[in-house]
Each structure stands twice: as C-alpha cells, then as structure tokens.
Amino acid sequence: MVAKMSTQQTPWQNHLLASLPKETFERIAPHLEAVSMPLGEVLYESGDQLHHVYFPTTAIVSLHYVMENGASAEISGVGNEGVVGISLFMGGNTTPSRAAVCTGGYGYRLKANVMMEEFNRAGSMMKLMLRYTQALITQMSQTAVCNRHHSMEQQMCRWLLQTLDRLPSQELIMTQELIASMLGVRREGITETAGDLQRAGLISYRRGHITVLNRAGLEKHSCECYDVVRKEFHRLLKEA
Prior knowledge:
Blueprint: H1 15-19, H2 22-28, E1 33-37, E2 42-44, E3 52-56, E4 60-66, E5 72-78, H3 86-90, E6 98-103, E7 105-111, H4 112-119, H5 124-149, H6 152-164, E8 171-173, H7 176-183, H8 187-199, E9 203-206, E10 209-212, H9 215-221, H10 224-237
C-alpha cells in the first residue's frame, strides 16, 4: 500500500539509504515510494518473482522458511538497518523464503529494474548491498546455531534485543503466538519463558505488549549470538 509522504517519514530513517553517497541517492530518490507495511502483510511468497526491494524505516519484516506441513521459523529479520529482496541483485531473483511484516510500520520500495540499473553501475550501491548481504548471512548462520544449541530463554532474549535495536521505543506489540512462530517453537514454551523473564524483572508482558524493563539484564541472559551479529553489522556497515 503506497503511503502519503509526511515530515516524519523520510528515506534516511533506513540506515542503508542514509549511507548512500549524495550522487547515488539522488539518482534513485525520484523512484522511492513510501509504503505502509501493516502487520501480517506478505511482501513475497516462496518462489515469487521479485518486482521490488523494500527498505523498512519503522516496520520490521521477518524472513521465514515454511515447511510442507505449514510449520515455519524465522531465518532472519530486517528492519531499518537493511533491505528486503537481496535475491534480486544476488542473481537468483526468487527465494525459498517468505517475507512477512511482523511489526507494522512504514518503509520505501524501489522497482527491481531501477535497483538493478544502479547495482550494475558497480559503484557505491553494489558495494553497500554486498556488505549488507554478508552481514545478513551472518545473522542467518548465527540464528541456525542459536536455535540448535541455546536455551529457549537465551533465544528469546536474543530475539527481543535484535527487535529492540530496530525500534525507537522499549515496547513491542507482539503476541506469544507470533513469537512462537518466529522461533519455531510451541506457544507453551514462549509462555513459560516470558513468565520467567517477567518474574526476573526484565520484561513486562500483557495482552500482546512486551515492555523491556531491564535491557542490560536481557543482554546478560542472552547468548553470544546477539553480540556476534551486532558486531558484524557494525563492522561491515559502519564505513558505508
């Protein structure tokens, strides 16, 4: 859904767009469309041909792998630090994952042909997208390791911290069912873990609203995966 431009909605809220040199940004700026990204909207399904890439500003998009039986798990998330649709410029143009909005908000989209024209200049856009892709691969790899080797509490703390980094506040609007779907676990496991974190004074949870009360405490309860991914994004994109 195309959104009306407002003074509160600017492309520079997306860190990748903000990192582009002025000359590069000015070439694509006329083609950037502000779009509303409501909770639950599917940007593309597995196997779809990509017609746009998306640069979230206040929305967060979850990349899911969906099994034949309908079960799914998040393989990575994309917020204001990134772009949705890397398979377009990586040469595949389709992907086996589904991209769905897990936190409603806004973003900008760019038509595939405009993105590819800029990418194929082999200049700043290409270098930035490749560095971002390397960081995203780190996130995907670390998520797989985390889901295999770390406790439910550590996984949830990692996921909460990564989500908070993409939001302007300490509050998330997120049901336990949605979190369970993200982590690929049963809802009962999320209920128990959220209760433990609440009793520890780290979060407050009520009716789909999670408020983080003690971020430092969450970081202590998380595994090393959160820090690994955070540092890799910073290393690869800090000089973008």
